[in-house]
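Hi, does anyone understand the following?
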Amino acid sequence: MVIIDKPAGLLSIPDRFDLNKPNAHQILTQQGKTVFTVHRIDKDTSGLLIFAKNSQTHRSLSLLFEEQKIQKTYLAIVHGKPPFEEGSINSPIAHSSAGDGRMIIHPKGKPSETLFKLSHAWKKFSQIECKPLTGRTHQIRVHLASIHCPIVADPIYSLKPNLKIDDIKNYVRKGKFEETNPDLIARTALHAHSLKFELNGQSLYFECPLPKDMKAVINQMNKWQ
């Protein structure tokens, strides 16, 4: 296996329409590695991504994902606070009929379940730990939005596509020439934090820390909220 900490803004695999867009698979291949795609995470999501180095491992890992035997943990910074400190969101997800790439909660959608747990709450924001039990497109983003906790800076399902320091501060005193409203984060504040599974009789666990942009948001939350 090759396991990487994918930065936000990088595709997991080649784009369907523009093969020249930088992506993790391409970068590994250019380094002389033969890799097989096992799963993917959204372009703007940071964190752990697995590639197999041979066809046998690819089959084994793909089966583990298909049978939901890989425990995936994500960390999200969201608007608001969930109705319960922990629980399960079990709502079917389907493609929007508008054809705009959005996913929606729909009774005829595919069964989808996400476990969630409140990690920390500020006045107007929260950090939530999520464990998706299924692997639908945009699942965590759609499920959190459905309980009125859209992920911060999510360009599709949130209030706006960025978070500024003024959104966090209770009040702001601006000097005459002072710029006090820079973007703290301008991408979906979602991080693939850990992976846990068994392979060939061996228990494996991988974890990577929050990236700098999400840490910066949390630091400002702690300071002002």
About this structure: The chain has a mean pLDDT of 92. Residues 212-224 form the longest helix (13 residues).
